[in-house]
What we know:
Radius of gyration: 38 Å
CATH architecture of the largest domain: 3-Layer(aba) Sandwich
Structural class: alpha/beta
Helix content: 40-55%
Order of helices and strands: HHHEHEHEEEHEHEHHE
Number of strands: 8
Strand content: 5-15%
CATH topology of the largest domain: Aminopeptidase
CATH superfamily of the largest domain: Zn-dependent exopeptidases
Number of domains: 2
Strand order of the largest sheet: 2-1-3-7-4-6
Amino acid sequence: MLLGMRFALRIPFxxxxxxxxxxxxxxAIAFLACVVMGFAGWAASSPRRAPVQSPVVQAAxxxxxxxxxxxxxxxxxxxxxxxxxxxxxxxxxxxxxxxxESEVVMEFTVQVRRALESQGFQVVQTRMGNENPSFDDRxxxxxxxxxxxxxxxxxxxxxxxxxxxxxxxxxxxxxxxATGLIPWERAQGPFLSLSRKLGDLVQGQMxxxxxxxxxxxxxxxxxxxxxxxxxxxxxxVSSVTVENRNDLDRMxxxxxxxxxxxxxxxxxxxxxxxxxxVRP
Length: 280
């Protein structure tokens, strides 16, 4: 192209000198024609690229339907949130030999966690040491999980020593506000029937191991359970009034095994379609 342009430039200059303005314009037109032809040849020799289209344009151009979003699938049970009660400056129930509920439940938690993991569950704890999360913080840990249940561990100050009682929250009808969200303080409402089923299965396992324990779950107003948007139970071992701390320690393996087997038996019944919307 550049050689063609140099040749074309010489033609009008010489023509102007020899023949005057009229022939100059004729050769100028010829020069422009050479330039146009040169650019056309360069464009023809350059590699061509397909035009880039946005996904929306491509979909419209090919008349293909955009696939619909997949339907929300039910979430299966795979996480157990363990809530060792009390902690920090809140010792919970206190008994003979300086027994503190907040300390004993942490020791129980170690064995319960091990038993649950042996059943294939992922375990999340509301506290790992001597902290004292608020009730809402404990609930929030469970509410942040998908496919989870909450098990809150307690050592009672009353009850027949050597027995275990399992609680589900007292009656709490489901309620939603104008936005369709569930108020935080009533989050347990939609899950009460599942919580009672879980509680019955765990309590049944406790009754097999600890004579004098009830056969079925009981109802109580347990703060952590009320604000939990998932099946939730409280397990209370009796009691801090034992004369020998070893009597409590010996219960830990049986309590852990009963919880793990009860939760495993509950797993086929756990069907929750996604996470429930809870308004704080």
